[in-house]
Amino acid sequence: MALTIGLLRETLANVLNRAEREGAFRYRLIGTAAGLLRGVPLEPGDVDLLVTERAHVDTFARALRSYRCLASPTWLQSAGQYYAAFDVDGVKVEASTVEWPSDSAFVEAIGSGPWEYFSDIAAGDRLVAVVAIELRLATELRRDRRDRVDAIVRWIRYHGCDLQLLTHAMGARGIDTGTQSSVMAAIVG
Asked: Radius of gyration (Cα) for the chain, nearest Å?
């Protein structure tokens, strides 16, 4: 099933309302779905929720227990994540911690970055905490996903971004200076 922005909004409202009724649930929407919710024309394969602690993954799992469980809460040693996933009416929704140490505040899913740099975006009757587009772009650059990078850069050219934050994020992700210059030139025009 293609994850459209309408279906994403509906799924997020459903999942987040359920999770918050179940207990404490501090999260950020990350990944490709974060870009789509902003309006970037992307095709996410799933919905990724980053949470602050393992207990919030457990809250997520209790809240979605009536849906098909794809992965019950489990520690993924090699990924450094406590993770769970559910099929919510045909949409794969995941919640996880990312427990890699980092001193950087400019990485999408590690350290303090997603908790400091985010926006609240409407989805149905609620606001969703969405990681900053600058951190998302740096992740896609790091993964060398050209199609996604191009879509985000085009979106940023029209909607704007915090260029200083983007510079810090690219540096934190180890993006070479040539690529950084190319991205900045494409954004500023």
From this structure: 16
